[in-house]
Amino acid sequence: MNGIWISFQFSLLGEYPNILTLKQPKIMKQHIKFLVALSVLLAVHAIKVTPQSVSTFDDLLGSPDGYWNGSYSPLGASVTSGNATFRNYYDTAYGGFWASGWAISSMRDSVTPGDGNLYSARPGKGADSSLAYAVGTQGAIIKIGSASALSLKGFYITNSTYSAKSMEQGDGFAKKFGGTTGSEPDWFKLTVRKYLNGVINSDSIEYYLSDYRFSDSTLDYIVNDWRWVDISALGKADSLVFYLTSSDVGQFGMNTPAYFCMDNLIVIDSVVSAKLISTEENSLKLYPNPSAEILNVAFAGNTTDLGEITIYNLSGDIVYKENLSAQGLVRRRISLNNFPVGIYYLKCNMGNVVYEKFFVKGE
Fold first, then answer.
1. Which residue ranges form the domains of the chain, and what is each CATH number?
2. Which of 98, 193, 110 is nearest to 137 (CA)?
């Protein structure tokens, strides 16, 4: 899943256009105020677009019940998904083992306890029922971008099956959380810190993957599903580092298995001001707008470069994408039958030319 988060700034040049007249098909009443603002927005010459990259990991593994732990490229390997690089260290000693960093997994075993099930997420699938996800361990590092520091939005997180089952049942090394009475104040926490310009920052984001400290024991929990963690407060970062701590500590350190799972890390890539083509000959045309069933798209594709049409909802999620290559006038008919009623943003890229416009899916 890749998408962009849309923000915009505008100033009017000349007089306001006529306010959009609502005709059939009918539009839901709650959209009317937005459509008034939209008609003003369409009069401007530029839109500021904030792209974002999403680390989904689905392109790294082709089928369920597999994993990559660095054994194919040991001693300092890494994998890239979205605009983030996940570092891995696979030690070749003692027959080889995943020593630190990240593994990529599509394992679906949500029930088997023990370290033989090291690469499974407790929900048995990725976030949003996706194929793959990342498994992290103590001190795991993510390199953000390739050159300058970038801002981050957040990620989904859950326990690994190994960690969750250990906390639920206890094992040969770790205690059952809550103890025999269920009242002991146990906890398992992930802390995220950032590096900026190569220096670790004191700011951090904390998230409890398990918490048994409530006075009302019915509130005690072990995370068994995917939860969103907002890390935008950290600001720009070169890298992220992840630390795990637990109330269950023994002579040799933490007893709780030091593993967690991540999916859909969102990195805010940059802010790009894209010039719209404003002449009648070259402008992007979307009609009818609003439309309930078919959206006609027409624009000048005066290049031999490959291009694409991408449609986003107002949450920044991609809901449609089509690759294209054409010269002269490009025409497409896009079915809206599976689109929920609402406001959408359409972007056409052809070579170094970018066309952008909003449209409305009606009832």
1. 3-45+276-361 (2.60.40.3080), 55-268 (2.60.120.1350)
2. 98
